[in-house]
Amino acid sequence: MKKVLKFLKKNIFLTILSLFVLIGVIIILVVMFKFFISGNDKYGSRLDGINKVEITSKTLSKIDKKIEDEEEVDSAIIRIQGKIIYITIKYKEGTSKDRAKEIANSTLEHFDEEELNFYDVSYFLTSKGETEFNITGNKKAKRDNISYIKS
Questions:
Q1: What pTM was estimated for this model as a whole?
Q2: Is 57 left (phi over 0), alpha (psi -120 to 50) or beta?
Q3: pLDDT tens-digit profile of 104-119?
Q4: Are 131 and 99 in contact, with CB atoms under 8 Å apart?
């Protein structure tokens, strides 16, 4: 023990430097663990409360069927990712842009007020043929209407 103390006193600068390096390595390991290893949730706290306003697959399939019952609609796909409901509607040839937007707007009636205040809704409206169009629209949570991008 006396030899160790004698060595430490003789090399005081090296001892202090070694302590700082050791403390730095410990801090770096703690930060890396916190951010890279334990941070598996890609959404962080953005999905807090989603269990209270969960939309079931049964509800989604019911809405999907109601959309596809429209005569102008060829197919519809609804999926949820995080707090965003993605609705993709493919229209039959000859459907006007205004009618396509009208059908998309009517989908909001099928969601509860609580769901519309929690989730964002993103629309992709497409049609092929003579009246070809690709329209994108979004409805933010707590907003009343869909804003469409000019196409």
A1: 0.72
A2: alpha
A3: 999 999 888 898 999 9
A4: no
